Amino acid sequence: MTGVDTDKVNTYIEDCIxxxxxxxxxxxxxxxxxxxxxxxxxxxLDYYKRxxxxxxxxxxxxxxxxxxxxxxxxxxxxxxxxYPTIRKTLKLWMEDANEQNPNDISYVxxxxxxxxxxxxxxxxxxxxxxxxxxxxxxPGSHFEERQQLPSGLHKKRQQGExxxxxxxxxxxxxxxxIAALRFLSQMExxxxxxxxxxxxxxxxxxxxxxxxxxxxxxxx
Length: 220
Fold this sequence. Notes:
It is a peripheral membrane protein. This protein is mostly helical. Helices cover 40% and strands 6% of the residues.
C-alpha cells in the first residue's frame, strides 16, 4: 500500500505460498499488489500463477481467471501507474497513524485510509472539484448533480446543526469503512452526520471467496 517494490515478486508472498498458507490470503495479497501497481509485469504475474497452481492445485485456474475478469489480476500495460499520484493526493497512506488516539481515518487500517471514505471526506470539504484530475484516474465514472427543491421544502439549518449525508455502498462495505465514517462524524470540526446504506456487509475474505471457483475447500 506504500507503493514500495510493487513491480517485483514479493518475498513475503513467496514465503506464504511455500508454507501453504490459506489460498484466500495469497489471492488477497497478490491482488493488492496488482491493483497498487496498475497490473503486474508479465513474468511476475506468470510466476505467481505458476506457484499458486503448483501448490494449491490446477483446479484453481478458474479462480485466477475470475480475478482477471474483474480486474484484480492483470498484466501491466504501457499505461502509467496512477496509484502513487492517487495515494499522495488523497493521503491514502499515513506513516504516523495513531491507533490509540486517532486523528485521521487511516487508523482503521493501521496507516491506510480507505479510498471510499477519503473521497467522502473530500466531498464534504473542500469538494470534489479540488481533486478533479484524480477522480479521472479512478475506475468508473463520476458525476455531481444538484436536486432542485421547491422553495417550500427548503429547510433552513440552525446554527450548529450538522449536515446529514447519505453514503450508499453498492456491492458491499467493510466494518472498517463504517468505523472510519463514524470517526469522521465525531470530529469536532466536521459538522457532518453520515447515514450508511449498503447492499451487503463484506470483508476481504468474503469478497475474494465470492470470486473463487471452489471456495468451500479453501477456508482453513
